[in-house]
Amino acid sequence: RDFFPLFYSAWQSAFQEKTILKAFEATGLSPFNPQVILQRFTTSTPLASLSDSDSSTISTSDWRKIERLLRQVVDDRGNKQVKRLSQVLHSNSVQNALLKHEVMSLREALVNERTRRKRGKALPLLEPEEYNGGAIVWSPRKVREARSQQQQQKLEEEQQKLQKAEAKRLRGDNRQAKAEAVQLRRQARAEARLLREKERAERAERAADQASRAAAHRTNQR
């Protein structure tokens, strides 16, 4: 759905009168000027002719200016290192231009998506069985029915969300209740264990007291 806006924008940018005229001018066809091509094969260019080129800022995407500047400062154009440098500059320039275009396209697609979301969902209007393409004119009754169906669907979705939220809350309450019950059972078992230990200690203490009294009684009888 984002293809046509991007394609149409690129098509409008590429197929412009000034772009076409520049293409003819760059090849020396219109206006007719063979020197445009011949001057590319000149052997050397004085460094003094750099004039504004050495002081002006050159964009990394303008590979033609970079190539022209390279030809002005390098005499031996047949050198392999020079050719490789030219290729690297050209490749980096193209990649930079592509990345800029991609960023612009992604931003435009993001803006279109946000705009589409703000407009809301499309009405659930079904195409007729005999539809063969082209524009469809819907009757006011069909539009009202579609809006009513969309509103009903929206209410059902909201109801489902509320039901899911309530079910989640109940699950949380059940987990909390189970945890509290487990804690109460642990506490009851701990209290029962303490009570048994206390009773056992009291019985042991009574038995020891009785044994002590019996031993004292036997001693007195002797």
TrEMBL record:
Residues 154-178, 188-208 have a biased composition (Basic and acidic residues). Residues 143-222 are annotated as: Disordered. This is Uncharacterized protein. It comes from Clathrospora elynae. The lineage of its organism: Eukaryota, Fungi, Dikarya, Ascomycota, Pezizomycotina.
